[in-house]
UniProtKB/TrEMBL annotation:
Family: Belongs to the FKBP-type PPIase family. Tig subfamily.
Alphabetized Pfam families for the sequence: Trigger_C (PF05698), Trigger_N (PF05697)
Domain Trigger factor C-terminal: residue ranges: 271-373
Organism per entry: Capnocytophaga stomatis
Trigger factor ribosome-binding bacterial domain span: 1-146
Recorded name of the encoding gene: tig
SUPFAM superfamilies, A to Z: Triger factor/SurA peptide-binding domain-like (SSF109998), Trigger factor ribosome-binding domain (SSF102735)
Protein name: Trigger factor
Gene Ontology terms, MF aspect: peptidyl-prolyl cis-trans isomerase activity
């Protein structure tokens, strides 16, 4: 067997695999001999069918299978041994005059090669990395939400004129097949309709127009169970039957509440609760800030790292890469939509390879171990038996999806640390509202 590579240009090559009879003859003969032992052909005893008949009936199919196995194994080994960094998979070149009756065969494969390029991690202006602070006002609001969430519902006999009263009832319209029970606050109802609810008692019915019923038209999707498109155009009358009117008494900031929120005894005062809320908010904000920073670096690298791709090869490969063969136009569109992602994959791969950042098995195991222990602590489970933890970790590492998830998180962390240490950065301290306005270019917090 002989394998050669013809370099077409920097990004394209053709690999030729020449297979001779002595490469496959013994394998084919062995398979046919086994066929002869088990073949059940009328007129012949089992194991006594003439080999000529076996070859005539099965020879071509066995030859085809064995040559293809040999071809795939040798091609894959060649690509690994030669350390060829290819994109997609090798594409066989069709031959009009290919003859399976010949003794020697030659197969050609087109391959697309990954480009070589350099990275510039020092943009002239630098990339902004936000440090989001947690304001006392935000902690106040979170404390208030917690007190309401864990507070007691106090039933009222009627709808009071206060925005936070919770109303429960059923919306009905036979024509539009609306028959849905919903709970909402009076403040969600549009201002012009609120007075229709105030003073109504349990069992009362209201006739309401859906158009302009709520401050947000999308509320119709949740409370009337209509589609998004219907919600925007819905203009019918519905009957609302009042079933409950409740106010929520805020929970006291006591040990009972603290133990509902955190493992028993971890928080024992309002001051500690506020500190916990601040810590958790800072962690959440840091995650958002880190994700934004990583996205910004990604965009910068993709836009400023110039290299060519074997575009025509990749478009041809995309036609047959999926379960369904694509048309030329579909493959071209698929390439256009995925080109940016492919470019970043190559950039990321270069960073991981050049800096030896690929997660090791020990790192995967350590990450899984920490994750399991954090979950146990979250649910108040004592960590006394390390073998129990190791057992859970072992099961996680046997789950391919879990391993991929952990590997993805580790790569994220490693890239983030690498970028923080190597990219030119402009640090900027902001509140969360300022972060939202700057990042999403909106006036709404």
């Amino acid at each position: 067997m002989n394998i050669t590579k013809e370099q077409i240009d920097a990004l394209n090559a053709v690999v030729t695999v020449a297979i001779e009879k002595n490469d496959y003859a013994d394998k084919v003969e062995k398979v046919l001999t086994n066929y002869r032992k088990t073949a059940n052909i009328p007129g012949f005893r089992k194991g006594h069918v003439p080999m000529g008949m076996i070859k005539k009936q099965y020879g071509k199919a066995v030859l085809f299978d064995e040559v293809n196995k040999l071809l795939q194994d040798s091609l894959n080994k060649y690509l690994v041994d030669e350390k060829l960094d290819i994109l997609g998979h090798p594409l066989p070149k069709a031959k009009q005059d290919f003859d399976w009756d010949a003794e020697n065969f030659s197969f050609e494969f087109e391959i697309g090669l990954a480009p070589s390029f350099d990275l510039d991690l020092k943009p002239a202006k630098g990339i902004t990395r936000y440090e989001i602070s947690v304001e006392d006002e935000q902690v106040d609001k979170q404390v208030e939400r917690i007190r309401k969430q864990f507070g007691k519902l106090i039933s009222k006999g009627e709808v009071l004129d206060q925005s936070d009263i919770e109303i429960t009832g059923t919306f009905f319209n036979e024509e539009k097949n609306i028959d849905n029970k919903a709970t909402f606050k009076l403040e969600e109802v549009s201002e012009k309709n609120r007075k229709k609810f105030v003073g109504k008692k349990i069992g009362d019915q209201l006739q309401l127009k859906t158009k302009g019923l709520f401050e947000d038209v999308h509320s119709l999707m949740h409370y009337l169970k209509v589609s998004h498109d219907e919600a925007h155009d819905l203009d019918v009358e519905v009957t609302f039957t009042l079933e409950e009117a409740n106010v929520r008494e805020e929970a006291e900031l006591n040990q009972e509440l603290f133990d509902k929120l955190f493992p028993a005894g971890e928080v024992t005062s309002e001051a500690q609760l506020r500190e916990k809320i601040k810590e958790n908010s800072e962690l959440q904000y840091a995650e958002q800030s880190n994700q934004h920073f990583l996205n910004e670096v990604t965009d910068y690298l993709v836009e400023n790292t110039k290299f060519d791709l074997p575009a025509e090869f990749l478009k041809k490969w995309l036609r047959t890469a999926g379960e369904k063969e694509l048309t030329e136009e579909e493959a071209n569109n698929e390439y256009e939509s995925s080109e940016k992602g492919l470019r970043y994959q190559l950039i990321e791969s270069k960073i991981l390879n050049d800096n030896k950042l690929h997660p090791t098995f020990e790192e995967l195991k350590s990450f899984a171990n920490t994750y399991v222990k954090n979950q146990m602590l979250q649910y108040g489970m004592p960590i006394e038996d390390e073998s129990y933890v190791d057992g859970i970790v072992g099961k996680i590492l046997q789950n391919r999806e879990e391993v991929e998830r952990i590997n993805k998180q580790l790569v994220f962390n490693k890239l983030l640390d690498f970028y923080k240490g190597n990219v030119k950065i402009n640090d900027k301290k902001v509140t969360f509202d300022e972060f939202i306005k700057e990042v999403y270019k909106t006036e709404e917090a």
